């Protein structure tokens, strides 16, 4: 059975800023629809400052495959920034960032960052951030 298509606004700031507080602002109905009906969804943008379009993958198995298959899917082969005016891609003058790294470079940098976000480290920072 096909579910009625909701107004898909998963990449719009207002979706989260004005979202349902009982779901922490997350558009769970939209996520569920995408997982079940359009697991590989093409989001198009009309804002002249944004890229023209982006693929949104919503199934865990697809995301897992993309994360592991750097020969076929690699973020270091093109822009991953949504804004046209602030490119991250080093080809266009940006500095290397986690978003534009793949394979061993990404894993090495993620390993360094993971140590900073363990439950104990986050707990130590919690009071400071709440303040």
Describe this protein's structure.
This protein is mainly alpha-helical. It has one domain. Helix content is 38%, strand content 8%. The chain has five helices and two strands. Strands 1-2 form a two-stranded antiparallel sheet. The N and C termini lie far apart (49 Å).
Counted by DSSP, the helix tally is 5
Could you say how many structural domains there are in total? 1
The radius of gyration is: 18 Å
Which of globular, elongated, flat, extended, rod-shaped describes the shape? globular
Which regions contain 5 or more consecutive residues with pLDDT less than 50?
none
Q: Give the tally of β-strands.
A: 2
Give the biggest beta sheet: 2 strands, antiparallel
Query: What is the end-to-end distance?
Result: 49 Å
The SSE string, one letter per element, is HHEEHHH
The percentage helix is: 25-40%
State mean pLDDT (0 to 100 scale): 80
